[in-house]
């Protein structure tokens, strides 16, 4: 027993030291993947009957396994949507784990859920949704989108007997995130895509509505707009789309998983006008609100409608609906039952730093996108594909073929220098391979961007 206790103490100290070193380090390395066989050859058998010991396992992690990861917060990781959790949030993520809180029901997690709700109240205030609107934290944007779409579909079915046996239909644009299509599949809903990757505006949408067959119109229950497309940072015409939804009696969902953080930024807030009319909104704090993975959120104008769709029934759950357990039960508003109080690290970091720091950090991402655009315009061998959208910049290296972009990406990654990946941009009927930056980390330097662009010369 004594030996085990000593090992536990040492392991705890090692973990704390590693965590402190990691969050205070300013020169993390960009790791690169190895094949599973290669990793296996490096670490050998780790799961054994007697255990290999904490020290050994931790050393394998530090020496081999962690080096096969790309830290999402590296200042030259500008691919996909990177991350940049605050140090406060990362440390409080450890506290969240250590506190062992079951975050489904107030009865068990009142303290943690209270904190989540404080952070949520602030997020709701950013949207301008009316009194009564509220939300819950989810595992990410995908789970948030699924929760919202199912709430919308169940509401539609409840309102009209005739819809009960009908397969629902939603409209969005090809600029929408892949998770919309994927989650529609999960919920067995058809998706009609408006063929534009640019800003979804009312004329195209009206045209699409006009072309629906009566049967399709009968099945249509929601329109999904994007508040900051993942590829290009484009914010759809939310106000115009909201008005159409109101007129047509359709649920209006805004997927702002990536762009939601920009609601804080005075420089671009006007682009989101109309979001206050949404029935539901997705925002990922693990993208632009500086939370560690994983933390998404879904917000509803009328949370009662979500509760009707998601509240789980079971004799073993009845106790939670008892008088003594009165309070807000996050499980009722999204697809998960047992859940981590994943909004807790965000709460702590917000409480510690204040919301102004968040505003500055988001504005910095937008500023970096504009700086990058200026640098691109100043160089003869690259050009902008379009003006930056929020913190996304699409640009082309003149004369490059798709394989040149791929080769350049792999070279930079192999050297541990940067992770910048190509994407495609649709104009008319053709897809062009282009390069893309997405800025989240306020510690990215202008020199980082210069060096990356120099490496394309
Ligand atoms: C990232 C993203 C998602 C998916 O969110 P996850 O947290 O990865 O599940 C959905 N929609 C948009 C617009 C996104 O950028």
Secondary structure layout plus pairing:
Elements: H1 2-24, H2 36-43, H3 54-65, H4 87-99, H5 106-127, E1 134-138, H6 141-159, E2 169-173, H7 178-186, E3 190-194, H8 202-210, H9 214-219, E4 220-226, H10 238-248, E5 251-256, E6 280-283, H11 285-288, E7 296-300, H12 303-310, H13 344-353, H14 355-378, E8 382-384, E9 392-397, H15 402-414, E10 422-427, E11 430-438, H16 446-454
The structure holds pyridoxal-5'-phosphate (PLP).
Question: Could you explain the architecture of this structure?
Answer:
This protein has 457 residues and is an alpha/beta fold. It has two domains: 93-353, Aspartate Aminotransferase, domain 2 (3-Layer(aba) Sandwich), CATH 3.40.640.10; 361-454, Aspartate Aminotransferase, domain 1, CATH 3.90.1150.170. Helices cover 44% and strands 13% of the residues. The strands form two sheets. It has a seven-stranded mixed sheet with strand order 1-7-6-5-4-2-3, with helices on both faces. A four-stranded antiparallel sheet has the order 8-9-11-10. Helix 4 (87-99) crosses helix 13 (344-353). It starts with a helix and ends with a helix. The model has no long low-confidence stretch (mean pLDDT 96). The structure holds pyridoxal-5'-phosphate (PLP). Pyridoxal-5'-phosphate binds at residues 81, 140-142, 145, 177, 179, 226, 230, 255, 257-258, 284, 296.
What would you say about this model in short?
By secondary structure, the protein is an alpha/beta fold.
Question: Which keywords apply here?
Answer:
457 residues; alpha/beta; Aspartate Aminotransferase, domain 2; Aspartate Aminotransferase, domain 1; seven-stranded mixed beta sheet; binds pyridoxal-5'-phosphate
């Amino acid at each position: 027993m004594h030996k085990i206790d000593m090992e536990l103490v040492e392991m705890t100290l090692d973990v704390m030291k590693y965590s402190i070193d990691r969050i205070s380090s300013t020169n993390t390395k960009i790791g690169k993947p190895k094949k599973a066989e290669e990793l296996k050859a490096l670490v050998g058998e780790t799961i054994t009957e007697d255990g290999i010991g904490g020290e050994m396992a931790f050393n394998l992690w530090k020496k081999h396994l962690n080096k096969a990861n790309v830290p999402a917060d590296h200042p030259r990781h500008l691919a996909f949507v990177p991350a940049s959790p605050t140090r406060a949030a990362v440390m409080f993520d450890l506290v969240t784990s250590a506190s062992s809180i079951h975050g489904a029901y107030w009865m068990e997690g009142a303290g943690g859920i209270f904190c989540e709700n404080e952070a949520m109240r602030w997020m709701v205030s950013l949207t301008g949704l009316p009194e009564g609107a509220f939300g819950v934290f989810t595992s990410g944007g995908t789970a948030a989108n699924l929760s919202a779409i199912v709430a919308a579909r169940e509401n539609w079915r409840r309102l009209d007997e005739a819809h009960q046996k009908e397969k629902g239909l939603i409209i969005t644009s090809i600029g929408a995130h892949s998770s919309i299509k994927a989650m529609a599949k999960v919920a067995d809903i058809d998706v009609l895509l408006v063929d534009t990757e640019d800003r979804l505006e009312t004329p195209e949408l009206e045209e699409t509505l006009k072309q629906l067959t009566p049967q399709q119109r009968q099945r249509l229950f929601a329109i999904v707009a994007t508040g900051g497309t993942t590829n290009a940072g484009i914010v759809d015409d939310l106000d115009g789309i909201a008005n159409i939804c109101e007129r047509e009696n359709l649920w209006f969902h805004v997927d702002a998983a990536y762009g939601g953080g920009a609601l804080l930024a005075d420089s671009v807030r006007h682009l989101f006008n109309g979001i206050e009319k949404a029935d539901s909104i997705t925002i990922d704090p693990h993208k632009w609100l500086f939370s560690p993975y994983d933390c998404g959120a879904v917000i509803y104008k009328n949370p009662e409608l979500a509760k009707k769709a998601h509240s789980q029934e079971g004799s073993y759950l009845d106790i939670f609906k008892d008088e003594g357990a009165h309070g807000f039960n996050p499980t009722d508003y999204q697809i998960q039952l047992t859940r981590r109080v994943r909004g807790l690290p965000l709460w702590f970091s917000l409480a510690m730093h204040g919301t102004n720091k968040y505003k500055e950090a988001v504005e910095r991402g937008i500023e970096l996108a504009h700086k990058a655009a200026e640098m691109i315009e100043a160089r003869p061998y690259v050009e902008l594909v379009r003006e930056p959208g929020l913190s996304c910049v699409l640009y082309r290296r003149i004369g490059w073929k798709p394989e040149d972009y791929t080769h350049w990406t792999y070279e930079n990654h192999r050297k541990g220098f940067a992770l910048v990946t190509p994407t495609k941009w649709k104009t008319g009927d053709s897809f062009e391979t282009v390069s893309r930056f997405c800025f989240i980390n306020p510690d990215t330097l202008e020199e980082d961007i210069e060096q990356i662009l120099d490496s394309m010369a």
